[in-house]
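Human: I'm a chemist; would you kindly supply sequence and structure tokens for a protein?

Assistant:
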Amino acid sequence: MTEYAMPAETARALIAELQAYGVNACVGGGWAVDALVGRQTRRHSDLDLWVEAVEFEGLVAAFVDHGVDRLYPWPGDRPWNFVLHDGDSRRVDLHLYETLSDGRFQYGSVNAPFLFAEEDLSGEGEIAGLSVRCERAEFALQNHTGYQQREVDRHDVAVLCEHFGLQLPEGFR
């Protein structure tokens, strides 16, 4: 599959479909940045979503009904993070997490968990006129660091820092 663009209307339709199925997905990645600032600032090749693992069945049902029913092999895929696609232009990067007994969220393996708080997924934004839950700005910024940055990551970090008055992380200055 080649690189492609996911228009805002496509992202909106996928999120609306999940909402119709009662799946409380949270937008992450580049679309979270754009949702937070209320406008599309760049092209996106996929839609990153945080979804609680217990909602996985509803997510699959919603996506299968709309043809997003194939795995897209990606380096580093794990049971809690993998990509679904429709064989054409819709690609969704899923990030599944579980709620722990103390209320924190766990993403990743039990041997190397990434723990975060419910408030990290408490951002509010808009994609193509649809109100969406998304990563809050500080969490989105954190998730754009700690790995080899691409041009889109540098763009997203700059947008977040400028819009929310956040300090540029080390390596982005």
